[in-house]
Amino acid sequence: MAGEDMTDDRIVTELFLEKPNFKEVSRVAKALDGIGVKSIIMPPEDRSINTHLIVENADLPKIRPILKKLGVSAMEKEVIIIRLENKPGTMADAAKKISDKGVNLLYAFSVTMTPTLSYVLLGASDNKQALKALKD
Question: DSSP for 23-60?
Fold first, then answer.
């Protein structure tokens, strides 16, 4: 995932790295890449807050010992990651599809990756049902 184009909307794990500096984020990404774990780094615009590191759920058993070895504290949250065209209304449309199925959105975080593409992380009362609503 790091540096790769992601094409499938899916359920992943978001790791919150608490106020890391660039060196720490780079060290974590390199260590994960070294064990074959691809990630997406979604840095906030304000560098003094948490960095979002997106990983596949299946990789968590490999990731946890690496983070511990590096002395990095990370909070885990299961979320949906989707790609949206970077234009007004696309996130609202996605939220409406989910709410129309009776699923409550609890969390949203978006990062513009290119002038035409944004990645959006969504947390819902039922992530599987929310993802299904987006695909219907």
Answer: HHHHHHHHHHHHTT---EEE--SSTTSPEEEEE-GGGH
Does residue 93 lie within any of the structural domains?
yes
Task: Give the Cα separation of 53 and 13 in Å (integer).
Answer: 8
Which pLDDT score, from 0 to 100, does residue 49 have? Answer: 63
Both 29 and 71 in a single domain? yes
Residues 63, 104, single domain; the answer is no
Which of 50, 42, 53, 46 has the alpha carbon at shortest distance from 12? 53
Are 22 and 73 within one domain? Answer: yes
- Stated pTM of the model: 0.83
pLDDT at 4 over 70: no
* pLDDT tens digits for range 75-98: 999 999 999 999 999 999 999 999
From 63, 130, 120, 126, select the one nearest 87 (Cα to Cα): 120
What's the CA angle centered on 100, arms 99 and 103, to 5 degrees?
40
Give residue 56's pLDDT band: very low, low, confident or very high (50, 70, 90): very high
Q: 76 near 14, Cβ under 8 Å?
A: yes
